[in-house]
Specification:
Helix content: 10-25%
Largest sheet: 5 strands, antiparallel
Distance between the termini: 20 Å
Radius of gyration: 17 Å
Strand order of the largest sheet: 5-4-3-2-8
Length: about 160
């Protein structure tokens, strides 16, 4: 695993079942791991190896789910011996209902704090405004300006939004 969580980060996560009475929407998400189009969001930890949280694999929002996953297993994942699971260094603890990808998967309303991105079309130089959770195409010349890619940080890749 690239950039493993610190002991302090792991120690701050509640033990398994400590948030059992907390509604799923309000569960705090302490860590975010990702690789390609796969995301793991951590809400609880047994202190050794087992996380409980939310997983979205291969951008399959319909089959995503709350459940258990192993820190050891995440640590062992490698793609072609080069790419490893990453711990999102810019992650800030927040409730599940404020995580855009969890909201999409669960069918919850999207967070209201979504930012608007203004981006210039490289072709016609027209400025386009769009929510960060959307693919962006120029309305004039139809060029795709921003789309999903393989290497990312929690949504549209390269940290444009979480």
């Amino acid at each position: 695993m690239w950039n493993k969580p610190t002991k302090e980060q792991l120690a701050s996560i509640p033990e398994l079942y400590r948030t059992e009475e907390t509604p799923l929407k309000d569960k705090p998400i302490y860590l975010h791991f990702f690789i390609g189009n796969c995301d793991w969001y951590v809400s609880e930890f047994d202190g050794k190896d087992v996380f409980w949280g939310f997983a979205i694999l291969n951008n399959d929002f319909q089959m995503s789910e709350w459940g258990y996953f192993s820190f050891h297993d995440l640590d062992e994942i490698q793609v072609k011996g080069i790419f490893e699971i990453e711990n999102d260094l810019f992650w800030q603890v927040r409730p599940a209902h404020q995580v855009e990808r969890i909201c999409r998967a669960q069918g919850w309303p999207l967070p209201e704090h979504q930012d608007i991105l203004e981006i210039e079309c490289p072709n016609c130089k027209k400025i386009t405004r769009s929510g960060l959770g959307e693919e962006i195409s120029c309305p004039e010349c139809k060029v795709i300006i921003l789309q999903r890619s393989i290497s990312y940080q929690g949504g549209f890749r390269h940290g444009l939004y979480s």
